Amino acid sequence: MSPLSNEELCELCVWLQQFHLSKSIKHFTRDMSDGVLVAEILKSLFPKLVDLHNYSKCSSTANKLSNWQTLNRKVLRRLNIYLDDGMIMDLVSGSNGIMEILLNELMVLTTREEAGKNAKR
Q1: Who is most buried in 3, 58, 80, 120, counting CB within 10 A?
Q2: What is the pTM of this model?
Q3: 34 contacts: CB under 8 Å, gap ≥ 6
């Protein structure tokens, strides 16, 4: 996985602005490391897949891990997005630009689905 280009990051920021989240995003890795905002984005995109009560705002590594493991098991796998333990640790710790890559994957996935729906009309 390669880091996102500046253009891709700008596109991602514009895409994220459409969501009404419980907290504003100032720094991807820090603000989203507990998985709660990602769960809120997924709830907006796929309402039937996400139960927000499963995810709690937290700062401890153990609770962040729990949130991401739940999100991975219950939601991301259904979207054919697979996170291994190393990726989950990177999300929790804000390492390797993995958060931006995951969000970009979600953006690409949903943009493709929207394009497919519009083509069928």
Answers
A1: 58
A2: 0.90
A3: 55, 56, 57, 58, 59, 63, 64, 67, 92
